[in-house]
Amino acid sequence: MTKKFYASIEEEISELKKERKAVILAHNYQVGEIQDIADFTGDSLGLALQARKTDAEVILFSGVHFMAETASILCPDKKVIVPDLAAGCSLADMIRPQDIRDWKAAHPEGVVVCYVNTSAVVKAESDYCCTSANAEKVVASIPAEKEILFVPDFFLGTYVKERTGRKNMELWRGYCPTHVEIQASQINKLKIEHPDAEFLMHPECGCLTKSMHLADRILSTEGMVHYAKESKAREFIVATEVGILHRLRRDNPEKLFIPASAHAVCSYMKMNTLEKIVASLENLAYEVRVPAEIAERARRPIERMVAVV
Ligand code: 13P
Question: What's the pTM value of the predicted model, to 2 decimals?
Fold first, then answer.
């Protein structure tokens, strides 16, 4: 078979997408060129909602594995594919299903809230699921007398505990290695150098416990995109993975966005490339499908997550 000639890789992806009746969903941490060809770019919650409402036959998820699993659970009749199966999440790997079973055995009346950055098998053991965009609301919706275990992100859990004033909430000690790259000392230095800048922080930041009082806003990635557009400020210090800067700068060319740390790069998120997206659409690979028994149990916490927007 002769290979068709395309003027650019973007054109090739656009053609393949039509042929495959596919939609491309990209997370805000993807490289700029992927964000530019995606049908939707957003945070974990926004992308799950887009997956649920698409009428495409194929969902190409350019993000990390747990996001594709969530899409597959929400859309069992669709084919969910990823450009690279090795694109995982270190934070998600910090909790195992057995850890939750052990906690539940010791706290039979308690409930488990898992962050979306968990594997489907962990979600299947959990009662509620949340993203950084709705964690506070999800926890606030749980009856006050219920003891909670929040997994796996300690810093998001700390933030939610502080916001809700909830005392009966135990936190798992997991963390995102990319966000812990961001140090409170760097933030203090940048705030002195840019006194008029607003400071936007993702709740996964390791510096959260030390710098919470300094943040103008603690937001999910999509929350940052919305906030930066609306704000009258001209400069922003951005404490999250650097991929977000592409969209912030593209949407607000007149504003200055300063990364809190240029080293906050998630190597998993950066495994996806335009070339791998071409191969993925051509071969309809690599498919992510959650075993039916796991999907069945994981669906309830995920449905609770997408119901809280
Ligand atoms: P958001 O949902 O805020 O985009 O965060 C996703 C994520 O994986 C951060 O590590």
Answer: 0.97
